[in-house]
Fold this sequence. Notes:
Layout: H1 2-5, E1 8-15, H2 18-21, H3 23-27, H4 32-44, E2 58-62, H5 69-79, E3 83-87, H6 96-102, H7 104-114, E4 117-124, H8 129-140, E5 145-146, H9 157-162, H10 165-174, E6 187-190, H11 193-207, E7 209-218, E8 221-227, H12 235-246, H13 250-254, E9 257-260, E10 274-280, E11 286-296, E12 302-307, H14 314-334, E13 338-346, E14 352-358, H15 365-374, E15 384-392, H16 402-408, E16 421-426, E17 434-441, H17 444-458
Parallel strand pairs: 1-2, 1-4, 2-3, 4-5
Antiparallel strand pairs: 6-9, 7-8, 7-9, 10-11, 10-13, 11-12, 12-15, 13-14, 15-17, 16-17
Amino acid sequence: xxxxxxxxxxxxxxxxxxxxxxxxxxxxxxxxxxxxxxxxxxxxxxxxxxxxxxxxxxxxxxxxxxxxxxxxxxxxxxxxxxxxxxxxxxxxxxxxxxxxxxxxxxxxxxxxxxxxxxxxxxxxxxxxxxxxxxxxxxxxxxxxxxxxxxxxxxxxxxxxxxxxxxxxxxxxxxxxxxxxxxxxxxxxxxxxxxxxxxxxxxxxxxxxxxxxxxxxxxxxxxxxxxxxxxxxxxxxxxxxxxxxxxxxxxxxxxxxxxxxxxxxxxxxxxxxxxxxxxxxxxxxxxxxxxxxxxxxxxxxxxxxxxxxxxxxxxxxxxxxxxxxxxxxxxxxxxxxxxxxxxxxxxxxxxxxxxxxxxxxxxxxxxxxxxxxxxxxxxxxxxxxxxxxxxxxxxxxxxxxxxxxxxxxxxxxxxxxxxxxxxxxxxxxxxxxxxxxxxxxxxxxxxxxxxxxxxxxxxxxx
Length: 461
């Protein structure tokens, strides 16, 4: 008893395991270089998740790549952790939880550190299969861990099922009488590229556009958008063209394919892509975290978000929040726990369609957590924020260090006691000639002015 009483109270271990969330998808890439690039880019973005645990006080942060010391110092100054320890397995395969278990030296160090605490809380970007393996391993080695942001293992199926394109489509169809506003674009789930190419060709010719999605893609990969003029108008030629495109990547053959109508997007409603994010707590209670609009490229690749009340009209906001809660109620009944968001498409006919739901932390969770820590939990009431996870530098710009980035933007930085400015979300992404940031101010106009000055000084695209 004396030894137990002498232990420290609670420590949180956070695993930055972005690639594990889409491991099966990444494994199906035909192009080895593309696969390696995907794994590397996810690893480069792992340090942004440190902002996503800004509310923790005793923290062990485990990431695929070592965090730069200047970035650690920057985060420490912003969030005043009581303890911040960062660890990285020596080998990085994309399965960080497995890499950690196999790295005897790092794993033994972690065990020794955790034995100093009464309570160990294990959190992660995604409740992946590998995450549950790590949890079991820790327990077998005498560390009793709690996982409040993950389902019990008997309900772990909810992560992949509801986080897939086909899963959310099935849920919409099952509950359409209960919640008629929860709708998805008209489409079909099919297996095999032959069937998918035929259905897609028929829809393209009939409606002058079509969308194909693999069941669970990532960062734009696994989504094909074809607008009028992109494909032949002859059915046979169109089908052959689509078939030749789909056979290039193994993931179209391995997973269900969703063929959907092209929605005529209304950019006046949250930029055309409203979004809400929630958390389902351990007791099943659902809490709204934030809402806003997703910023995507023409090819559908996620770039960042606009967050705040001014981004979504009150009428639209009420509707999307309501069916976001409704979706969460279905998840909660099935045993899901943790973060989830609802990605939507606003159509010019006034309808809002659900495009997908991510059952994990998302591309802006870190921004929300940072701003609630630095400003206030209700910052959305009075502030506007814009994020970009990897804003590219202009070609031929010499690589910059994180120290140089901070020096060039010192007067723009959001700091303690200051309610507007820039938070840099990653140092590692600089190695890919990109900059990650969150910009926040009371007025949208001022926030965009800060962002434009940032773009100018750092010579961003």
